[in-house]
Amino acid sequence: MRVEVNRDLCEANGLCAGQAPSVFEVSDSDELEILREHIDPSEADVVDRAVRVCPKQALRVTYD
Amino acid sequence: MDASEINLLDKDRFAQGTPHEWFTWLRANAPIWRHPEPDGPGFWVLSKHSYITELGRNPQVFSSDDLYGGPTGLTVADRSRMNDAAKGARSLPHMDPPDHTQYRLIVERRFRNRPISELEDRIRELTSELLDATLKRGVCDVVHDVASVVPITIICEMLGLPTEDRDKVIAIAKADFGVDDPEILTDKDAYVAAREGTQSYAHKLMALRREKPGSDLMTVLVQSTVDGRPLTDQEIALYFELFIDAGHETVLTALSQTVQAFVENPDELRRLAAHPELATSATEEALRWATPVMYFRRAVTEDIDFHGYRFKEGESVTMWYISGNRDDDVFIDPFRFDIGRNPNHHLTFGGGGPHFCLGARLARLEIRVFLEELAKRVGVIEAAGDPAPLRSNLFNAYKRLPVRFVPSLVNS
To answer: Does pTM top 0.90 for this prediction?
Structure first.
């Protein structure tokens, strides 16, 4: 699985990084960075929570 | 009690204080409830946290656009009054994606973490000066003398308003807020005149920034394009109005409600002074407690089943954040003001979705700094007269709140 961010919606609130710091990080210049392209199945739950907690609904999980 | 006692259109009841008992009854007995409307179609009332969150996150079906009535106004009459004053243009809260996405992109970078964090020193300087002056006076009206000062100064500085024009704009903006309170605005004509006043001032500021650009928000607006064309003057005027109103009255209300919460819960102020590290959770509790905007409305754009109810195209649905923020499925002991509350998933900035409060970071910063500086100086806040709630079923505000600030022993 992968996680995608819609850059037109993301406002770098960083709630995803709070849920899944190994996958999401907000940079010093206020940009959301996705640290890993492929999400390990063991992280699926925490990434799913991160997607749901986003106040701008900017994240989406896709499956290869 | 029963549903026949509930009348969210009774603005006089709101002038007596927030009718929490109605919402408590609705959450327990009718969490999705059809409210009657004399001479109108009525509206759905959502009072549970989970329903409010779900609805706000579905803009495909539930529209904010003025085409379907817009995000505020419970009745047809209230909606037409507000929408007339926009003169054909729409501001951000009155749009749906994809238009909303484009118009929000123009300004949202200015509200991200770094630019807002850079305001902290200035906010602290203003807050400290203000509280020192207030303590010298002793008795004050929190609304006018304390809570409004820092938010309006900061938003005016962000917009690039010349200092000498500030008082004029404040006076005009206050009027927007008092739309249903005859003490502030007598009738619809006075409301339209107040809105025109703000908008015509915005036109002057636009001309100024076109001639002499700065690094402020107004310069961003006059230089921005959408679909390859510059923003129209009326579009810019509505952004301006939004920033003045949303950047001012919301935090003003949060601060006034928090001061009143400390009057009623003096131990919580002592607790904050003893544990300044609680300022962050206290900020979230202040936001939950105050809920400055009590509801927003959406219009149903296609028939849809919602938890056993059929919402029909064209109907109004209202999301009562003030109620969701007291929902005991989400908050333990919700009527207790607890500055250490954690977690605190309040709905004060909306429950998520495209319209999630653009100014959330600024609001949090202004409130946190206020709480930190207040707890350093003030030991007790005492009532010095009766609080006067605003007559409004939209804003959970006071129009006057007389109190006495008593210095803490450490500093006196």
So the answer is: yes
